[in-house]
Amino acid sequence: MKVFQLIPEMESGGVERGTLELARHLGSLGHESIVVSGGGKMVRLLEECGTRHLTLPAGRKRLSSLALVPKLRRLFTEEKPDILHLRSRVPAWLAWLAWRGMDPSTRPRLVTTVHGFNSVNRYSEIMTCGERVICVSESIRDHVLRHYPKAAPGKLRVVHRGIDPADYPHGYRPSAEWLDAFQREFPAAAGKRLITLPGRITRLKGHEDFARILKALADDKSLHGLIAGGAHPRKASYLDEIRNLFDAEGLGERITFTGGRSDLREILAVSTVVLSLTTQPESFGRTTLEALGLGVPVAGYDHGGVGEQLGLLYPAGRIPPNDPEAAVPVIRRLLDDPPQVPAEHPFTLQAMLDGTLAVYGELLR
User: Fold this and answer.
1) Which end of the chain is more exposed for a tag (fewer CB within 10 A), N or C?
2) Neighbour tally for 118: CB within 10 Å
3) What is the mean pLDDT of residues 75-91?
4) Sign of the torsion formed by the C-alpha atoms of 316, 321, 324 and 325
């Protein structure tokens, strides 16, 4: 089997990571894997696992990108892939226009993946154009059915995102050396029970709600808040706004901003409770699953993919969406008497890879 994946770039992010994971899996099974993107630091990882990378600026949102349509059609005709897998809107439009002009009897089979709750319009509808449409959660499938009535239910397939249990083993504890270095870097967190909000510094992640929750829990001096995530330079003013908010609430010494980290697994593992407070539903919520995989209690707003995970794996952590007041008793219960997090879950990397290849197999049969 020869599989083309199209993506704007291979720089960083969840979609890029999933592209790499699938490419690596295809290569391990002896299939031919090709990724078309504008490039990025993850290209080296693609090539190391035997995937060919073809550089095309297929993610640029401009009219001049339409010039790539005949180039893509020639590429598909020459390479003769069996599967064309589209993961983002601009490349999907370009590739679909190229694919549509090919002979239906010889062109590749078309798969799209809806990775997120994109704005509802004709531009986003392209992600439902595949002969099979992969939805990364039941919430995404419901979103597609609700907003795109032309998307036939029979072609939708739910393939949840997944993590490798070997990377996030249940009960994992960081080394004493790591813990010592972490506590030296962030002494205010040493010896405290950590309530951690992971994720990028953006308005959608619920930092304002976190401040209200932490203030309501301020009577417990054993608790310390941790915001584990970096801010893009364009978000610097918002980061200052959030820091000032915690200071204004008298929480300046009860909160630590770690910035962007490469050791998030270790931070999650030493946390007492991990939070998900996104003000809008996430399509899946990988970080939440990573914490649950490690066996760490999670409290999160009960919507989107996070709600699905909690409903199945840890219902004690469900919070009514966008209700920080309702979050406080939920978090207190998890701090005082947390139910055990199940040692196994169905959201594995292997299940995601097997599910994706099963979709390919449907079309090729």
Assistant:
1) C
2) 18
3) 96
4) negative
